Amino acid sequence: MQQIHPKTLQDLEFPTVLTQIAARCNTELGKADALNIQPYERKEELMHILGQTSEYLASFSNDNRIPNHGFDQINSELGLLKIDNSTLEISGFRKIGGICKTVAIHQKFFKKFKEYYPLLFEKVDDLELQPEIPDAIDDVIDKFGEIKDSASTELRYIRTQINEIRSKINQSFGAALGRYQSLDFLDEIRESVMENRRVLAVKAMHRKKVKGTVMGTSKTGSIVYIVPETTLTYTRELSNLEFEEKEEIQRILNQLTNGIRPYRELLMEYQRFLSDTDITAAKAKYANEMNGLLPEINDERELHLRDAYHPLLFLSNKRKNEKTWPQTIKLHSENRIIVISGPNAGGKSITLKTIGLLQVMLQSGMLIPVHERSSVCFFDKILTDIGDNQSIENHLSTYSYRLKNMNHFLRKCNDKTLFLIDEFGTGSDPELGGALAEAFLEVFYEREAYGVITTHYANLKALANELPNATNANMLFNSKTLEPTFQLVLGEAGSSFTFEVAQKNGIPYSLINKAKKKIERGKVRFDATIAKLQKERSKMVETGSKLKEEETKAREESKRLEQLNSKIKSKLESYQEMYDHNQRMIQLGNKVNTAAEKYFIDKKKRPLISEMLRIVETENSKRKKTTAKKAKAKQQEKKQVAQELEQKIKEVRVEKKIKKKKEIQAEKNKPRPIFKVGDRVRLIDGKAVGSIDSLEKGKAVVNYGMFTTSVSVDQLELVKAKK
To answer: Taking the model in full, what pTM does it have?
Structure first.
């Protein structure tokens, strides 16, 4: 798959989509990377990206929410790790530790839920976890970003000494403060702080009576700030210890940096993973907002977009609470090119941009707002000519620019291309421009490219009607209100409604009539006929819609009555069974009652037992008959099913034989191709493709690149003739 030209991406407003995705990223690195998203070159990589985005989207609707992936970028730290003897700052270590922990959390989560997110699990599972990195950082730096006392034995000793000295400083200063206060040498404020040191606020008149170092005076000069002599000794000692502490911290950080330096490449992978996750999450949020999904991807070169929305238009209208009209369009090998015609402002350009933008988004790993039963394929090239292409910088007119663009199309266009052209052929004399446009379209058609164009030219509409694998289409237009309905209808060209729109906008009828006389009568009639056909089509669509609605209602009512009938029948059967059973029980009860009365009269047990046994045996014989009947019926049913199945298998076999005979016959009747040197060929029922180097007496020397072989031309089939 090749890169799609930046001009195409610009025409389809793809950079605007990237801006909206970047706005949904959580991290600065993710935002920057999102703005540089390009269509993927390898299909395998693209399918992985699409699958990951689809899995992330699914996480929004289940209970297994993916953990937060936020991080602070470490690009400057990675740069320092590349330089020998460099030392990272505490903030850098904290960022590195945070990234390592976030990756570990993600790996643990996706391992637990790998059945839900197989592709996301596969991505994070490839990363090698190194828990010693965050552990080493946590051993040195606490959660407040301070170096721990336990970072080294030396640091612990130095800090113990510092605490002791500070205690002595406070004690000595307190003693001096008390003594000079009692002598009334101090001002009312008693003390102050200068250069992070406690100083005595001595009255200027007593300055020489206080032993110590003068640190400064007040603005008025009435107060002199002095560090007491007893405190000064301890202060110097404290300065030495603080210097030692600073050096020890530097040594510890340097040692920690050297310990992390070998993992620089791994840290780069961690950051790349989290940045990619940020973009995947942003794509999923974007898809969620516009009901995007991953449609079926086919290899049959078929593009079937059902209820497709233009993403930017959909989100814009959603904010305004306005309706967006979806489009349904289908391109396949038997309908490769669609020519859309109809009035301006009818939605032709939006349809064109919708197809192009959705295709570019999909090939860039984004989900698209279409119906779930849509089916799409990938194109190596997407070529566009949309909008006003007048180039002021290059002093090219619109038509000159478009001709230059068409030349680019002719060089690039092939059977793996999707081209989208708005207002094809415009910018020049209608007849000459239309003829040239027709010639271009024929070339695109011959090269088996897929495409959608919009035009007002009658000759292009006629050409689309003549070419077997091209179709006319139009945007429906209400001829009464002269307003677009934004619905694409395949199968017929559209009228431009030129005169009708002019009349609606207040142009005098006499002027319109004068204009009609100035053009060929046949063109007016042709346009009028198309307009009439469109009106009829609209009526038929409306009628068809009503009939379909009524048919659906009738089917639902029929189904409901059928279900009701089935329930009633079932109830009647159960009532009948209950009635028969009750009748039998009554008869049985009468017999038992008769035997009981007889015993009541004569008190003879033997006849009573004999009669009861006879009744029981009679009932059991009936049960046997019923069971036998049911078993027989079941056996018969099984036999019938088996016979029906056997019959169907026979029919399928016969159909296959007939189909095979037809294929063999067709193969026999198929004329043998006349091979030439340079033709691309393969052996019948073979897969390897080679080219013919030479032909002699029904034999061909076929070159497969690594080797050549001589075979009979009867064993070869043509893959591609040499041009």
So the answer is: 0.64
